[in-house]
Amino acid sequence: MASTADRGRFAEIVVIRHGETCWNASRIVQVILDPGLRERHLGDLQGLTLRDAAKLRPEAYKIFLSGKRDGEIPMLITVNDISGERVIVLTHGGVLRELHRRAVSGRSSDGRIHNTSVNVFLISESGNWTIKTWGDISHLDEIGVLNNAFGGDRTSG
């Protein structure tokens, strides 16, 4: 944990990947509607299942799978405005991947981003990002959930 003195110099952002939603289980592409904290709108793919997206919008689907991003996720702008606070955010794996890239200067994260994983970023007043905790799923150890849970898809990492 950051000390009280550190909280004056850093924002501590605790980012937790959500559990499996009904849309996840149905393989439907989604986005949260809050304009300050949302993932990209996925245009022609929005609301389609992955299977339908591949069939009905093959070019858009190809771009989606490529991982290329044309713009910054709006959440980064919102998070940069927080100073000396601890904030907890529940989000999707895609947002976590973007936050990780931001903290490590564009490098990708290794491995899956498990559902319910806890990830902690520190952001200095000068805007420097560091990762304090990445992919912590120790809260699941005692109940053995990872033995049979979804835990994220093949693109989760």
Describe what this molecule looks like in 3D.
With 157 residues, the chain is α+β, with helices and mostly antiparallel strands. The protein has a single domain (10-23, 40-140), classed as Phosphoglycerate mutase-like (Rossmann fold). The protein is built from six helices and four strands, in the order αβααααβαββ. The protein has a four-stranded mixed sheet with strand order 2-1-3-4. A hairpin with a 4-residue loop joins β3 (118-124) and β4. The longest helix is centred in the middle third of the chain and has 11 residues, at 93-103. The two termini are 25 Å apart.
Jot down its keywords.
alpha+beta; four-stranded mixed sheet; 157 residues; disordered N terminus; Rossmann fold; single chain; 18% strand
CATH architecture: 3-Layer(aba) Sandwich
What is the count of structural domains? 1
Tell me the major beta sheet: 4 strands, mixed
Compute the average pLDDT: 74
What fraction of the residues are assigned to beta strands by DSSP? 15-25%
Using the alpha-carbon principal axes, give the shape.
globular
Write the layout of secondary structure elements.
Elements: H1 4-9, E1 10-17, H2 22-25, H3 50-56, H4 58-66, H5 74-80, E2 86-91, H6 93-103, E3 118-124, E4 129-136
Parallel strand pairs: 1-2
Antiparallel strand pairs: 1-3, 3-4
